[in-house]
Amino acid sequence: MEKTAAFDIVTVGHFVMDLINSPRITRPKASLGGPPTFVSLAASKLGARVGVISKVGGDFQRKLAWLRENNVDVSHVNVVEDALTTSFILTYTDGGRRLQMKNKAPQIGLEDVPTSLRAKAIHVAPVAGELSTEIIPKLKERTHVLSIDPQGFLREFDHAGRVRLRGLGDTSFLQHCDVFKSSLQEVKALAGHSKLAASVDKIREWGAKTILVTMGKRGTLACFADEFYHIPACEPKVVKDPTGAGDAFMGGFLAEYTRGREPIWCCCVGSAASSFVVEGVGSRRFGGKTEVYERATEIYEKGVKPLSQDAFA
Fold first, then answer.
1. How far apart are CA 198 and CA 310, in angstroms?
2. Of 13, 28, 34, 114, which sits most exposed with the smallest number of CB within 10 A?
3. Are strands 119-124 and 155-157 parallel, antiparallel or unpaired?
């Protein structure tokens, strides 16, 4: 790129106000969430320079001040005073999670991306279709590493805001993708396969280079350099709320990846970063650099070996 990168990581997508209901939470209340929150804060704790491109409502002003205090650059967050910030109701049970959208902030367009923007990594992470895949080639021009979490492209909402996953007709945007991250269910929905290894192969055919599939307690399946690896999940001291764990993983991963560290170590740091988030509710708990590295080292030193595709068939 012609200019020096002003940021290590810029996340593109909506901030979210989450109302989290869970047997572990006695008094549910709205909590700041969404990929821009969890990716940015996890990476910032590791010393990365982070920024966000997003749109929020006039109800978000106090949160912007808090984010600035926590070293997140929000100068490219567009506040639409007469709109409401995207919000979800999340209900956790032993059987999984139900997601319902309550409000949606305005769309993010190319006009919201400054021409001067330069970042070592740009992480595209919509939550509710708030940006078009057509913006992706332009974002690629502004970064060394384009990272994509397609969850918001795959979600379809009914009249009551209830969500279900769908496939995509056009996957050509993945030819611009350097790092692809998604959940197990979303990867299968995108690829249209019931088997994980076949799904990953399909996404690689479409152009994604490094693929990360987060699987909760089962850890992460990583595919790079034509090899499959299983990165174990770090053991948290307590599990209070899994919201944002996958996004925190990406914050930790990209913080190290933009420093040129090897991908396996980056995954171990991502696993460690996510383990701290689940110890709190919403965005209240993030590990510091030293403690995240300590947990990551425990995984890394055990050795992570290549796996056959049959292990994740």
1. 10
2. 114
3. unpaired
Q: How many helices (H) and strands (E) does the chain have?
A: 9, 16
- With respect to residue 1, please indicate whether it lies within any of the assigned structural domains: no
**195-226 burial string, b = 16+ CB within 10 Å, else e?**
ebbbbbebbbebebebbbbbbeeebbbbbbee
Residue 2 has pLDDT above 70, yes or no: no
Helices (H), the chain: 35-44, 61-69, 136-140, 151-154, 184-191, 196-205, 245-257, 263-277, 289-300
pLDDT of 1 strictly over 70? no
pLDDT single digits (tens) 114-149: 999 999 999 999 999 999 999 999 999 999 999 999
**Does residue 257 fall inside a structural domain?**
yes
- For the chain, the domain total comes to 1
**Pick from 255, 236, 227, 231: which is nearest to 11 by CA?**
255
Q: What is the chain's mean pLDDT, rounded?
A: 93
What's the CA gap between 60 and 206, in Å, rounded? 37
Inter-axis angle of helices 263-277 and 289-300, to 10 degrees?
120
Give me the amino acid identity at 5: A
Domain of 62?
7-312
The CATH number linked to 89 is 3.40.1190.20
Q: Is residue 2 part of a domain?
A: no
For the stretch 261-281, pLDDT in tens is: 999 999 999 999 999 999 998
Q: In what order do the strands lie in the sheet with 16-21?
A: 30-33, 16-21, 87-93, 96-103
Residue 187 neighbours by CB under 8 Å, 6+ apart: 196, 199, 200, 203, 213
Q: What is the mean pLDDT of residues 154-168?
A: 94
